Amino acid sequence: MILPGWNSHATVAACLESLRCQTFRDFETILVDSSPGLETEAICRERFPEIRYHHHPTRLSAHGARNLGVKLARGGILVFSDPDCRMSPVWLERLEKAFRSGHRAAGGSVGNLEDGWFPGGVHIAKYAWWLPGGHAGPRPDLPSANVAYAHDLFDEIGPFPEQWCGDTLLARRAAAAGVAPWFDPAAEVLHDHRATWGQFLRERFERGCDYGLVRPRLEGWSRARLLAYALAAPLIAGWMTLRALRYAALAGHLGNLLWCLPVVAAGYAGRQAGEAAAHWRLAWRRC
Fold first, then answer.
1. pLDDT at 286
2. Buried b (16+ CB within 10 A) or exposed e, 144-181
3. Nearest by Cα to 84 from 38, 15, 147
4. Using CA atoms, how far apart are residues 186 and 40, in angstroms rounded to an integer?
5. Residue-number span of the structural domain to which 115 is assigned
């Protein structure tokens, strides 16, 4: 179990307490913390002596911290989440069951810790594809908030690329290696969203920009395709919102999505604006 830490002192205790309540007990917890302050370290050392705490002197990206945690890990299954998540008691049990069933990459659902119009919209904008209550089965992508890889598979396809979309890229590598990531909604974590409107939209824009720079290079897009996708950004944002409606309906969350639809739509608009900006940048470099 590997957690990245960066100024995580407000949420890490609840996360680690939830790990103490797991029905599956044969696991180690590694927290790689690159915070400038000592608050997270103090919480871990004073209240959770059972975890393996590692402090890195300079700031790491979340995926960089995960990659370092892999180097420290001893287990045959690498499980990843975040210190702003709380895990259901059967979380690790369900993931371990997926691996016993023959899956080498598996993940679970991401629920929302806080009720409310704005937090609910933020959550669905980020995790509509992995809401609790969905159907188990293969998925093309699994978020790093709730994913596990066989250690030997990770050695083959890893490490995490350090872009924000590194979890998406790693899932694509797994599929290219013949391993379809498996989704089990019963393996649930709850995400603690703490964001203002400005922080939410900025994060969505930056993630979109990151993905918009990576995907065309991987797939060898032409300049014409880059420009077409940039111009079609409003239509794509609408299509993504419709897809979110579909996934929310399948998971039994359609009412929640409709209630906070303006927040969800704003999130997808921000993400597509970021992708469009990246596509324009790449297209003009080819002029």
1. 61
2. bbbbbbbbebbeebbbbbebbbbbbbbbbbbbeeebeb
3. 15
4. 29
5. 2-191
pLDDT tens readout for residues 186-241: 999 999 988 999 999 999 999 999 999 999 999 999 999 999 999 999 999 999 99
| Alpha-carbon span 2 to 94, nearest angstrom | 17
- Do 122 and 72 sit in the same domain of this protein? yes
CB contact at 8 A, 111 and 251: no
Per residue in 90-138, pLDDT (tens digit) is: 999 999 999 999 999 999 999 999 889 999 999 999 999 999 998 999 9
ω before 159 within 30° of 0 (cis)?
yes
CA nearest neighbour of 197 among 270, 128, 111, 112: 270
Pair 133, 55 in one domain: yes
Element containing residue 147 per DSSP (H, E): strand 147-150
Domain count of the fold of the chain: 2
pTM: 0.95
DSSP state, 260? T
Pairing relationship of beta strands 182-191 and 137-138 according to DSSP bridges: antiparallel
